[in-house]
Amino acid sequence: MKAAVITFPGSNCDRDLAVAFERAGADVVRVWHKDSALPAGVDVVGVPGGFSFGDYLRCGAIAAQSPIAAAVKAHADRGGYVIGICNGFQVLTEMRLLPGALMRNAGLKFICKTVELEVATTASDFTSGYTMGQHIRVPVAHHDGNYAVDAETLARIKAEDRIAFRYADNPNGSMADIAGVLSENRRVLGMMPHPERVVDAGHGGTDGMALFSSLIGKMALA
Amino acid sequence: MKARVTVMLKTGVLDVQGEAVRRALGTLGFEGVEAVRQGKVIELDLAATDKAAAEAEVKAMCEKLLANTVIEKYSVEIA
């Protein structure tokens, strides 16, 4: 299994994401945003958190137009796995790989704390290592995590069981308490909380490990 | 040729920053501000000389990058 972690100027969770993938058993390659192709044999692409391009224009908007973005889109269109965390989630919505947009937090403040999430579906290779309705503790660190989507699309993602994680106590105003959402083929996940920051007892928790383990484990079998 | 793009949140999308500005204006004693919506203005200097072609191109820029049409609307003025 090979995981590619993208680095944009301003990414700051790329190393942590690479370590989480490695810990789950993946070979990790680091990919620069100016590369126009992914290395051969990549199974999953990780789009990390941070402040790509200084959050200029809109969070994730410039990164979504970078040379590597077209390769990530082609990978997803072929049925490849992609996970976008925090700024990575913003990038994936700007690329239209995931529905909706991330707006300024309803309380206007940057939120940096550990929050409780409810696992809203186990029917994905990202969430199959959890139990339905399980509560996990994962940190958030964002200014623009307020998930917004039009009513029709919201109804569709609910009907299609595409909400991966919900906030137990909504910190940012996200519609339907959505913390993470899946693509139609369930192989692209975007989430604002940082599972890669809870994969070691030294982090103060390991609730994020099951996400990486189930994903890499699933691909090992495939 | 110059273009001025105005990007605003769509009607119906809650503008939490505009609302904070409205409350701050009230705190300063400006009464009767019933609503505030805030957005951004982007000015472009264009080499184009044909107004219609320039407008079409700037609209394409808005669709692709300058606005996120999931939550934002835009208008283009060419001068």
TrEMBL record, chain A:
One of its GO terms (molecular function) is ATP binding. The lineage of its organism: Bacteria, Pseudomonadati, Pseudomonadota, Alphaproteobacteria, Rhodobacterales. Its EC number is 6.3.5.3, 3.5.1.2. Part of the FGAM synthase complex composed of 1 PurL, 1 PurQ and 2 PurS subunits. Coiled coil: none annotated. It catalyses: L-glutamine + H2O = L-glutamate + NH4(+); N(2)-formyl-N(1)-(5-phospho-beta-D-ribosyl)glycinamide + L-glutamine + ATP + H2O = 2-formamido-N(1)-(5-O-phospho-beta-D-ribosyl)acetamidine + L-glutamate + ADP + phosphate + H(+). Part of the phosphoribosylformylglycinamidine synthase complex involved in the purines biosynthetic pathway. Catalyzes the ATP-dependent conversion of formylglycinamide ribonucleotide (FGAR) and glutamine to yield formylglycinamidine ribonucleotide (FGAM) and glutamate. The FGAM synthase complex is composed of three subunits. PurQ produces an ammonia molecule by converting glutamine to glutamate. PurL transfers the ammonia molecule to FGAR to form FGAM in an ATP-dependent manner. Its main location: cytoplasm. It is found in: Cytoplasm. It comes from Gemmobacter aquaticus. The active site is at residues 86, 194, 196. GO terms for biological process: 'de novo' IMP biosynthetic process. SMART domains: GATase_5 (SM01211). One of its GO terms (cellular component) is cytoplasm. Pfam families: GATase_5. HAMAP family: PurQ. Pathway: Purine metabolism; IMP biosynthesis via de novo pathway; 5-amino-1-(5-phospho-D-ribosyl)imidazole from N(2)-formyl-N(1)-(5-phospho-D-ribosyl)glycinamide: step 1/2. This is Phosphoribosylformylglycinamidine synthase subunit PurQ. Keywords: ATP-binding, Cytoplasm, Glutamine amidotransferase, Hydrolase, Ligase, Nucleotide-binding, Purine biosynthesis.
TrEMBL record, chain B:
The keyword Ion transport does not apply. Pfam families: PurS. One of its GO terms (biological process) is 'de novo' IMP biosynthetic process. Keywords: ATP-binding, Cytoplasm, Ligase, Nucleotide-binding, Purine biosynthesis. SUPFAM superfamilies: PurS-like. One of its GO terms (molecular function) is phosphoribosylformylglycinamidine synthase activity. It catalyses: N(2)-formyl-N(1)-(5-phospho-beta-D-ribosyl)glycinamide + L-glutamine + ATP + H2O = 2-formamido-N(1)-(5-O-phospho-beta-D-ribosyl)acetamidine + L-glutamate + ADP + phosphate + H(+). It is an enzyme of class 6 (ligase). The keyword Magnesium does not apply. One of its GO terms (cellular component) is cytoplasm. InterPro entries: PurS, PurS-like_sf. Its EC number is 6.3.5.3. It comes from the Bacteria. It is found in: Cytoplasm. HAMAP family: PurS. NCBIfam families: phosphoribosylformylglycinamidine synthase subunit PurS, PRK05974.1. Part of the FGAM synthase complex composed of 1 PurL, 1 PurQ and 2 PurS subunits. Part of the phosphoribosylformylglycinamidine synthase complex involved in the purines biosynthetic pathway. Catalyzes the ATP-dependent conversion of formylglycinamide ribonucleotide (FGAR) and glutamine to yield formylglycinamidine ribonucleotide (FGAM) and glutamate. The FGAM synthase complex is composed of three subunits. PurQ produces an ammonia molecule by converting glutamine to glutamate. PurL transfers the ammonia molecule to FGAR to form FGAM in an ATP-dependent manner. Belongs to the PurS family. This is Phosphoribosylformylglycinamidine synthase subunit PurS. The gene is purS.
